[in-house]
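User: Please predict the structure of the protein below. I'd like the answer in structure-token form so I can feed it into my own downstream comparison script.

Assistant: Understood. Taking the following sequence of 292 residues as input:
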Amino acid sequence: MNILVVFKKNFEAVHDEGLQHLRNTLHTVCGEEHTVDIRAREHVRRADFIARDLVIIFGGDGTLTSLSHNIDAATPVMGVNSHPRAQDPNGSFGFYMDSSVATFEDDLQAVLAGSAIVNTLPRLQAIIDTTSGNRFTTDPAMNDLLVANTHQYAPSKYRLRRGDQETKQHSSGLLFSTWHGQGAWLRNAMSSDRFAELVNHAASGDRSGHYFVHARDLSPDQRTVAPWAWSAWTSEATTITSDMHRGYVVPDGWDEVHFNRGATVTVNANAPMLQLLTFRTTIEAKLAALSR
């Protein structure tokens, strides 16, 4: 196998000790039979992820989401929590990081034996069409994607269309979320009642190709006029025509893609999926346990 290991560089003793354990384990288990490259997150580039048989991310959920944009649908990724909260209340929860320093050797052996659990996760994308005729597609988002005014003190003004329905909105921006990313930002952005209503609706039907969308800080009048455009669980593409001097799309809280007034931004759940490996339970079961 051709393996890439990417680690978060934070100079904490627990992290450095864990990284050294990973190095030793990889050397022992992989030997000369497998190729292993180890890179710091700050020095890795998109080209480093090409033609890999496995990508191992050492850090927390933020490390994984920041790097997942570089990982294509054919490459399995394994998350190793460098500082689990179970061992330290100041550590990382690591929803996507099913491995840890303590279990890494066994988990790596499971990957090499082909017995790891493969979770195929849908991702969001935004397609930006500018008034000059250029088209850009954002990086895929594992958790969520924000479309908003670059000046957060100013309202996000746009025309929103989904299917044959259309409306104008003034909000604090549109937040889109995958099913598995619901606990990252969406849960806190919505009222608890509305969140529970949408999640219950989503859980009862087909979730393939669907996503959540929520207009933040939308006035009660606008919610009444177009409730479908306030918050929804949908499989249809959402198209925003900007009436902002300058706006941006932010996938997973990382790279910003800017657009000007008149641009259209189309969001859907058709981005390349991600193969995330787990070892004791599926991501779906892990999410269900958190929701109880």
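That's the full token string. The longest helix spans residues 13-30.
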